[in-house]
Amino acid sequence: ITVFALYVSTVYNKAIATSDTDIIVNSVIVLFVMEMDEWIFSTLEAINEKWTKHAAESGDKSADDTDAEKRSTLDEMKGEIELQKAQIAGQQEELDLQKEKMARQSDEITLLREVVQKIQDSLAVAATFSDSI
Question: Would the pTM count as exceeding 0.85?
Answer without folding.
Answer: no
